[in-house]
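Predict structure. Input: ATP synthase F(0) complex subunit e, mitochondrial, 88 residues.
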Amino acid sequence: MPAPPHPTTVVLPEPINVSPLIRFARWSALGLGVVWGYYRLRQIREYHADIREWHHEKAVAAAAEATKKKKWLAKEEMRYLMKVCSFC
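Output follows.
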């Protein structure tokens, strides 16, 4: 004797026969959506790669400028110390 079904078991109705034309249209729409998504993702990746490259160039330029300023300030400090200590 089979076990009784669980009280929360979902009983699904029989599937409805769908026209082959409708099934083809659904699968075509799914395929086109996947292809369009792949194309769009490539576009977005290229755009964001350009943005990342720009940010990197900006950071490199800022680091170079900071290094240059740090060297200049160190030279100025040494000149000031030499002037104060009367070594010049």
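The chain has a mean pLDDT of 93.
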